[in-house]
Amino acid sequence: MRNNFADEITQLAASDKRIVLLSGDIGNKLFDGFKAKAPDRFFNCGVAEANMMGMAAGLAMSGMRPVVYTIAPFTTTRVMEQIRVDVCYHDVPVVIVGVGSGLGYASLGATHHSCEDMAMLRSLPGMSVLAPADPLEVRGVLRAALRHSGPSYIRMGKKGEPNVHREIPDIGIGRGVVVRDGVDVCLLAVGVMLPAALEAADGLAKRGLTARVVSVVSVKPLDQALLREAFARFPVVASIEEHSLIGGYGAALAEWMADHGPVQARLLRFGTKDRFPHEAGETEYARERDGLSAHTIIERITQALPRREAGRAAGAS
Questions:
Q1: CA-closest candidate to residue 182, choices 201, 163, 206
Q2: CA angle 232, 120, 138 (to 5 degrees)
Q3: DSSP E strand stretches across 72-207
Q4: What's the pLDDT tens digit per position in 78-106?
Q5: pTM (predicted TM-score)
Q6: Is the pLDDT of residue 308 over 80?
Q7: Per-residue pLDDT for 28 more than 90?
Q8: What burial letters (b/e) apply to 94-104, b meaning 16+ CB within 10 Å?
Q9: According to the model, what pLDDT value does residue 309 have?
Q10: How far is CA 108 from CA 59, 73, 241, in A?
Q11: How far is CA 87 from CA 44, 84, 154, in A?
Protein backbone atom coordinates (compact mmCIF):
# COMPACT_ATOMS: atom_id res chain seq x y z
CA MET A 1 0.00 0.00 0.00
CA ARG A 2 2.64 2.53 0.99
CA ASN A 3 4.49 2.21 -2.33
CA ASN A 4 1.29 2.89 -4.25
CA PHE A 5 0.56 5.81 -1.94
CA ALA A 6 4.00 7.32 -2.60
CA ASP A 7 3.65 6.88 -6.36
CA GLU A 8 0.11 8.28 -6.44
CA ILE A 9 0.82 11.37 -4.37
CA THR A 10 3.90 12.08 -6.51
CA GLN A 11 1.78 11.95 -9.67
CA LEU A 12 -0.98 14.08 -8.16
CA ALA A 13 1.49 16.67 -6.85
CA ALA A 14 2.95 17.08 -10.33
CA SER A 15 -0.38 18.41 -11.59
CA ASP A 16 -1.58 20.14 -8.41
CA LYS A 17 0.91 22.61 -6.98
CA ARG A 18 -1.16 22.95 -3.80
CA ILE A 19 -0.28 19.44 -2.58
CA VAL A 20 2.23 19.43 0.28
CA LEU A 21 3.54 16.27 1.97
CA LEU A 22 4.49 16.29 5.66
CA SER A 23 6.22 13.24 7.13
CA GLY A 24 6.75 12.38 10.78
CA ASP A 25 10.32 11.10 10.50
CA ILE A 26 9.32 8.15 8.31
CA GLY A 27 9.37 7.23 4.62
CA ASN A 28 12.38 9.28 3.59
CA LYS A 29 13.52 6.88 0.85
CA LEU A 30 9.90 6.11 0.04
CA PHE A 31 9.35 9.72 -0.97
CA ASP A 32 12.54 10.23 -3.00
CA GLY A 33 10.42 10.56 -6.15
CA PHE A 34 8.21 13.20 -4.55
CA LYS A 35 11.23 15.14 -3.28
CA ALA A 36 12.84 15.04 -6.72
CA LYS A 37 9.75 16.52 -8.38
CA ALA A 38 8.62 18.87 -5.60
CA PRO A 39 11.52 19.46 -3.19
CA ASP A 40 9.93 22.62 -1.79
CA ARG A 41 6.71 20.78 -0.91
CA PHE A 42 8.11 17.97 1.24
CA PHE A 43 8.73 18.52 4.94
CA ASN A 44 10.19 15.97 7.34
CA CYS A 45 8.76 17.27 10.60
CA GLY A 46 10.61 14.76 12.76
CA VAL A 47 9.18 13.21 15.92
CA ALA A 48 7.10 16.33 16.58
CA GLU A 49 3.73 15.15 15.41
CA ALA A 50 1.69 17.77 17.27
CA ASN A 51 3.66 20.53 15.56
CA MET A 52 3.29 18.71 12.24
CA MET A 53 -0.52 18.63 12.56
CA GLY A 54 -0.67 22.31 13.48
CA MET A 55 1.57 23.11 10.53
CA ALA A 56 -0.72 21.12 8.23
CA ALA A 57 -3.75 23.03 9.50
CA GLY A 58 -1.99 26.34 8.83
CA LEU A 59 -1.05 25.25 5.32
CA ALA A 60 -4.64 24.24 4.63
CA MET A 61 -5.90 27.61 5.86
CA SER A 62 -3.46 29.21 3.41
CA GLY A 63 -4.94 27.41 0.42
CA MET A 64 -2.59 24.43 0.24
CA ARG A 65 -3.62 20.75 0.30
CA PRO A 66 -1.44 19.17 3.01
CA VAL A 67 -1.11 15.40 3.43
CA VAL A 68 0.28 14.21 6.78
CA TYR A 69 1.96 10.78 6.81
CA THR A 70 3.41 8.64 9.57
CA ILE A 71 2.74 5.45 11.59
CA ALA A 72 -0.94 5.30 12.53
CA PRO A 73 -0.81 5.73 16.34
CA PHE A 74 1.57 8.67 16.01
CA THR A 75 -0.64 10.51 13.53
CA THR A 76 -3.83 9.89 15.53
CA THR A 77 -3.58 9.03 19.24
CA ARG A 78 -0.56 11.24 19.92
CA VAL A 79 -2.08 14.32 18.26
CA MET A 80 -5.80 14.09 18.99
CA GLU A 81 -5.97 17.59 20.46
CA GLN A 82 -4.40 19.13 17.36
CA ILE A 83 -6.64 17.11 15.03
CA ARG A 84 -9.71 18.15 17.02
CA VAL A 85 -8.92 21.83 17.55
CA ASP A 86 -6.62 22.82 14.68
CA VAL A 87 -8.03 20.64 11.89
CA CYS A 88 -11.65 19.71 12.63
CA TYR A 89 -12.73 22.83 14.49
CA HIS A 90 -11.62 24.91 11.50
CA ASP A 91 -12.94 22.31 9.03
CA VAL A 92 -9.85 22.50 6.85
CA PRO A 93 -8.91 19.96 4.14
CA VAL A 94 -6.02 18.16 5.83
CA VAL A 95 -5.53 14.55 4.69
CA ILE A 96 -4.17 12.46 7.59
CA VAL A 97 -2.58 9.15 6.59
CA GLY A 98 -1.86 6.42 9.14
CA VAL A 99 0.39 3.64 7.86
CA GLY A 100 0.55 0.22 9.53
CA SER A 101 -2.87 0.68 11.08
CA GLY A 102 -4.56 -1.83 13.35
CA LEU A 103 -2.16 -4.71 13.95
CA GLY A 104 0.21 -3.88 11.11
CA TYR A 105 3.05 -3.37 13.60
CA ALA A 106 1.89 -6.17 15.91
CA SER A 107 5.41 -7.39 16.64
CA LEU A 108 6.42 -4.00 18.10
CA GLY A 109 3.83 -4.16 20.86
CA ALA A 110 0.91 -2.04 21.99
CA THR A 111 2.69 1.29 21.52
CA HIS A 112 2.62 0.70 17.75
CA HIS A 113 -0.88 -0.78 17.51
CA SER A 114 -3.75 1.47 16.40
CA CYS A 115 -6.96 -0.31 17.33
CA GLU A 116 -8.65 2.83 18.65
CA ASP A 117 -8.00 5.28 15.81
CA MET A 118 -11.31 4.93 13.95
CA ALA A 119 -13.28 5.20 17.20
CA MET A 120 -11.58 8.46 18.09
CA LEU A 121 -11.55 10.08 14.69
CA ARG A 122 -15.08 9.18 13.65
CA SER A 123 -16.31 10.98 16.79
CA LEU A 124 -14.87 14.28 15.55
CA PRO A 125 -17.31 16.57 13.70
CA GLY A 126 -16.62 16.84 9.97
CA MET A 127 -13.96 14.10 9.87
CA SER A 128 -14.19 11.45 7.15
CA VAL A 129 -12.63 8.07 7.99
CA LEU A 130 -11.48 5.99 5.02
CA ALA A 131 -9.98 2.49 4.93
CA PRO A 132 -8.64 1.29 1.57
CA ALA A 133 -8.39 -2.49 1.22
CA ASP A 134 -5.64 -2.91 -1.35
CA PRO A 135 -2.97 -0.87 -3.17
CA LEU A 136 -5.36 0.16 -5.96
CA GLU A 137 -7.96 1.38 -3.49
CA VAL A 138 -5.23 3.49 -1.87
CA ARG A 139 -4.91 5.41 -5.12
CA GLY A 140 -8.66 5.94 -5.43
CA VAL A 141 -9.06 6.92 -1.79
CA LEU A 142 -6.23 9.47 -1.95
CA ARG A 143 -7.82 11.06 -5.02
CA ALA A 144 -11.19 11.23 -3.27
CA ALA A 145 -9.67 12.72 -0.11
CA LEU A 146 -7.87 15.43 -2.06
CA ARG A 147 -11.12 16.35 -3.83
CA HIS A 148 -12.91 16.61 -0.49
CA SER A 149 -13.40 20.03 1.10
CA GLY A 150 -13.03 18.86 4.71
CA PRO A 151 -10.62 16.81 6.84
CA SER A 152 -10.13 13.11 6.22
CA TYR A 153 -8.22 10.18 7.68
CA ILE A 154 -6.84 7.39 5.48
CA ARG A 155 -6.13 4.19 7.41
CA MET A 156 -3.57 2.10 5.51
CA GLY A 157 -1.80 -1.20 5.97
CA LYS A 158 1.93 -1.53 6.30
CA LYS A 159 3.27 -3.37 3.24
CA GLY A 160 2.79 -6.48 1.12
CA GLU A 161 -0.99 -6.26 0.84
CA PRO A 162 -2.24 -8.17 -2.23
CA ASN A 163 -4.17 -6.54 -5.05
CA VAL A 164 -7.83 -7.53 -4.86
CA HIS A 165 -8.93 -5.35 -7.77
CA ARG A 166 -7.61 -5.43 -11.33
CA GLU A 167 -8.02 -1.69 -11.76
CA ILE A 168 -8.69 1.30 -9.55
CA PRO A 169 -12.33 1.04 -8.44
CA ASP A 170 -14.74 3.96 -8.44
CA ILE A 171 -14.09 5.35 -4.96
CA GLY A 172 -16.20 7.96 -3.25
CA ILE A 173 -16.47 9.19 0.32
CA GLY A 174 -19.63 7.61 1.73
CA ARG A 175 -19.59 4.63 -0.66
CA GLY A 176 -18.47 1.02 -0.35
CA VAL A 177 -17.33 -1.31 -3.12
CA VAL A 178 -19.07 -4.64 -3.71
CA VAL A 179 -16.29 -7.11 -4.53
CA ARG A 180 -18.37 -10.31 -4.74
CA ASP A 181 -22.09 -11.01 -4.55
CA GLY A 182 -24.00 -13.73 -2.74
CA VAL A 183 -27.34 -14.44 -1.09
CA ASP A 184 -26.74 -16.03 2.35
CA VAL A 185 -24.57 -13.58 4.26
CA CYS A 186 -23.02 -10.15 3.78
CA LEU A 187 -19.39 -9.62 4.85
CA LEU A 188 -18.49 -5.97 5.37
CA ALA A 189 -14.69 -5.86 5.43
CA VAL A 190 -12.79 -2.81 6.63
CA GLY A 191 -9.50 -2.09 4.92
CA VAL A 192 -6.81 -4.75 5.17
CA MET A 193 -9.33 -7.36 6.38
CA LEU A 194 -10.79 -7.72 2.88
CA PRO A 195 -8.53 -10.67 1.87
CA ALA A 196 -9.56 -12.52 5.06
CA ALA A 197 -13.21 -11.84 4.24
CA LEU A 198 -12.73 -13.24 0.74
CA GLU A 199 -11.01 -16.31 2.19
CA ALA A 200 -13.94 -16.76 4.56
CA ALA A 201 -16.35 -16.43 1.62
CA ASP A 202 -14.45 -19.19 -0.19
CA GLY A 203 -14.73 -21.39 2.90
CA LEU A 204 -18.45 -20.71 3.21
CA ALA A 205 -18.88 -21.61 -0.47
CA LYS A 206 -17.48 -25.06 0.30
CA ARG A 207 -20.33 -25.40 2.78
CA GLY A 208 -22.92 -24.45 0.19
CA LEU A 209 -23.28 -20.81 1.26
CA THR A 210 -22.68 -17.73 -0.86
CA ALA A 211 -21.47 -14.45 0.61
CA ARG A 212 -21.64 -10.91 -0.59
CA VAL A 213 -18.25 -9.34 0.18
CA VAL A 214 -17.96 -5.57 0.45
CA SER A 215 -14.91 -3.39 0.83
CA VAL A 216 -16.32 -0.82 3.25
CA VAL A 217 -13.84 1.94 2.23
CA SER A 218 -15.87 4.68 3.97
CA VAL A 219 -16.17 4.06 7.71
CA LYS A 220 -17.51 7.58 8.11
CA PRO A 221 -19.75 8.66 6.49
CA LEU A 222 -21.53 5.32 6.19
CA ASP A 223 -22.84 4.03 2.87
CA GLN A 224 -26.51 4.39 3.77
CA ALA A 225 -27.92 2.80 0.60
CA LEU A 226 -25.65 -0.22 0.88
CA LEU A 227 -26.59 -0.75 4.53
CA ARG A 228 -30.32 -0.43 3.92
CA GLU A 229 -30.14 -3.11 1.25
CA ALA A 230 -27.84 -5.42 3.24
CA PHE A 231 -29.85 -5.36 6.46
CA ALA A 232 -33.09 -5.91 4.53
CA ARG A 233 -31.80 -8.67 2.27
CA PHE A 234 -29.45 -10.88 4.32
CA PRO A 235 -30.20 -12.88 7.48
CA VAL A 236 -26.67 -12.20 8.79
CA VAL A 237 -24.43 -9.17 8.24
CA ALA A 238 -20.87 -9.36 9.57
CA SER A 239 -18.44 -6.49 10.13
CA ILE A 240 -14.78 -7.51 9.98
CA GLU A 241 -12.17 -5.00 11.12
CA GLU A 242 -8.66 -4.87 12.56
CA HIS A 243 -9.86 -2.47 15.24
CA SER A 244 -11.42 -2.61 18.69
CA LEU A 245 -15.00 -3.80 18.89
CA ILE A 246 -15.58 -0.68 21.00
CA GLY A 247 -16.21 2.33 18.80
CA GLY A 248 -15.15 0.86 15.47
CA TYR A 249 -17.09 0.14 12.29
CA GLY A 250 -19.15 -2.62 13.88
CA ALA A 251 -20.13 -0.22 16.64
CA ALA A 252 -21.11 2.34 13.99
CA LEU A 253 -23.37 -0.32 12.43
CA ALA A 254 -24.98 -1.03 15.80
CA GLU A 255 -25.67 2.69 16.16
CA TRP A 256 -27.09 2.77 12.65
CA MET A 257 -29.38 -0.18 13.44
CA ALA A 258 -30.63 1.56 16.57
CA ASP A 259 -31.50 4.67 14.56
CA HIS A 260 -32.94 2.89 11.49
CA GLY A 261 -34.47 -0.29 12.95
CA PRO A 262 -36.11 -2.61 13.16
CA VAL A 263 -34.00 -4.51 10.63
CA GLN A 264 -34.17 -8.11 9.45
CA ALA A 265 -30.52 -9.09 9.75
CA ARG A 266 -28.50 -10.20 12.73
CA LEU A 267 -25.24 -8.27 13.12
CA LEU A 268 -22.03 -10.18 13.88
CA ARG A 269 -18.98 -8.11 14.80
CA PHE A 270 -15.39 -9.27 14.35
CA GLY A 271 -12.67 -7.07 15.82
CA THR A 272 -9.95 -6.83 18.43
CA LYS A 273 -10.78 -7.45 22.06
CA ASP A 274 -10.94 -4.90 24.87
CA ARG A 275 -7.43 -5.55 26.14
CA PHE A 276 -3.80 -4.66 25.58
CA PRO A 277 -1.65 -7.61 24.49
CA HIS A 278 1.33 -8.30 26.73
CA GLU A 279 2.99 -10.68 24.32
CA ALA A 280 4.54 -9.97 20.93
CA GLY A 281 3.91 -11.68 17.62
CA GLU A 282 3.42 -10.99 13.96
CA THR A 283 0.15 -9.71 12.50
CA GLU A 284 -1.28 -13.14 11.69
CA TYR A 285 -0.60 -14.30 15.25
CA ALA A 286 -2.36 -11.24 16.65
CA ARG A 287 -5.33 -11.75 14.34
CA GLU A 288 -5.65 -15.38 15.36
CA ARG A 289 -5.59 -14.36 19.02
CA ASP A 290 -8.51 -11.98 18.49
CA GLY A 291 -10.63 -14.27 16.33
CA LEU A 292 -9.94 -12.48 13.05
CA SER A 293 -8.81 -15.52 11.04
CA ALA A 294 -10.94 -16.85 8.20
CA HIS A 295 -11.73 -20.16 9.94
CA THR A 296 -13.11 -18.38 13.01
CA ILE A 297 -15.20 -16.10 10.82
CA ILE A 298 -16.61 -19.12 8.97
CA GLU A 299 -17.55 -20.97 12.16
CA ARG A 300 -19.26 -18.04 13.83
CA ILE A 301 -21.23 -17.15 10.71
CA THR A 302 -22.34 -20.74 10.16
CA GLN A 303 -23.56 -20.95 13.76
CA ALA A 304 -25.42 -17.63 13.47
CA LEU A 305 -27.31 -18.43 10.27
CA PRO A 306 -31.00 -19.35 10.52
CA ARG A 307 -31.76 -23.07 10.70
CA ARG A 308 -32.52 -23.44 6.99
CA GLU A 309 -29.22 -21.97 5.80
CA ALA A 310 -27.22 -23.66 8.58
CA GLY A 311 -28.78 -27.02 7.67
CA ARG A 312 -27.84 -26.54 4.04
CA ALA A 313 -24.26 -25.72 5.10
CA ALA A 314 -24.10 -28.82 7.29
CA GLY A 315 -25.29 -30.97 4.39
CA ALA A 316 -22.69 -29.47 2.05
CA SER A 317 -19.87 -30.08 4.52
A1: 201
A2: 70
A3: 95-99, 128-131, 152-155, 177-180, 185-189
A4: 999 999 999 999 999 999 999 999 999 99
A5: 0.94
A6: no
A7: no
A8: bbbbbbbbbbb
A9: 58
A10: 33, 12, 20
A11: 19, 6, 15
